[in-house]
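Entry 14. Two folds queued back to back today. First construct below, sequence then structure tokens.
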Amino acid sequence: MCFGHQQQMNLQVLWVPSITCGASCSYTSKPFTSTNSSTYFPSSAPIDPNMPSTVTYGTGTVAGTPVSDSFSWGSVKLHNASFLLVNYEDSVMRSIMNRRGDGIIGLAYQSGLDPSAQHDSVFHYIAIRGLIAQPSFSIWLDANATATTTTQGQAAGVIILGGTDTTLYNGEFTLFALTGSYFWTIAATAVSVGNSSVSVSPNVMLDSGSMGISLDSGTIQLLVEILSGAAAQIDAGSGLYILPSRICTNGDV
């Protein structure tokens, strides 16, 4: 069976919808039917003992049964890999998915918030078995992709396992050391706007699953004032801060 998955950098779990989920799940392909797989192992079989049965994304939740099976991701083939077979998505999660994929692949850093309850992310499983050239992955997003073009089959981006594609970028990468476990967090002490600087938390989290920049309200208000020269205003409908179009004249961020 083939599944289309969203990727999430803040959790480790891979999950797919079960045939038993029915209308409770939002998916684009077909749900997983265990009887159609000759390599499927139910929860009674030896699998990752720390795989959770419930996963929460913000305020959205999925629940199911930890199982294992063999599957492929591109040219990489995995055997006896653990995943969550989901039989329940709450209304928030159905709205998040909204037929944008069948499930989610977690790409969180392996250490985990609780070292005593770690479980392998899919990427860690791939890397430690030497199935890719380098223990790294890269994400490229197509700036020209739209909802219409992706519906028509055009890829909105690429996830590259084991390295990079030099045809997709110019220049050199800047490397940052990770400052914590689980989340992809790096050190950050300030945000500079022209000649002005605003102190921020010592750590920031990189998240490919969001298009926004999230900061505490005090820091955001200071940045808006520096950028626009006026007090920060919030749009009541979206809950987002409004910036005038002239901010580009006030310096680079």
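Second construct, same run, same settings:
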Amino acid sequence: MSNRDDFPQSVKRTLAERVGWKCSFLGCNQTTVGPDSSDTNGRINNGIAAHITAAAPGGPRYDPSLTPEQRSSIDNGIWMCRSHGALIDSDHTIYSVEQLKNWKQLAETRQSLLLQMTHQVSQNNYSDRDIGVLKAITDIFNYNYLQMLKSEQFRAKVSTNITDPLYAFDNIAYNPFYSFNDVVLETIRMELVGKVNNFWALFREYSAGGLGYYDYIDIPHIRRFYPEEVERFYGIINQTQDLAYDISVTAQKLLEIRAKLP
């Protein structure tokens, strides 16, 4: 008999449906269900109902104070793609219970906003308040900065010209006065918050601050002293570039909306 307090199928399905079958890992939003190309009547589910606190003793974030019913309840679950479901358990010291619960709430809020989009008014009816927030965010993520961010190589030295705007956005990201009433704009803003957070999670792990720049990944130094690590660090550089590019793509959406304002 299993000692795991697993979710019943009804809980798994409800978790998935509450976020539109999309991954709740902040910044991912990957769709986890779709048609099976090899079976006209089939579907593929690439999602998983992950436990916030472990289903059994010894598991990640296990909480002995919970009852079996609480461990297998919907309150203890979060829907994720399989990659991120595995990641939060393998790096469970990084991903806390509070963080996962917050991500779950954000994902459900995002899906709720999307449901309201059919009632959204046209762009000509953006409120003065929303236009002000839009201008504040796109002043930070202006066109020239986004081009610079997309072309940054992320090697030994990374200029604070790259990081300062990201810090500036962090300063307003969770300020309710810099959120949108318009559900389309707010959905894009929430996506941007997730993309910036994903970038910082990686960049801060391998960077150190300097005057006017950050020390990052020095490939010649690594090749000289740690040759067996060169390929791994090239992968980290590529991942950092991809995360920066993701930020620029999402911020560009807001910039294009501003450009079309009357």
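Quick look at the second one. Residues 223 and 256 are 42 Å apart (CA to CA). Strands lie at 33-35, 43-45, 47-51, 77-81, 157-159, 208-209, 213-215.
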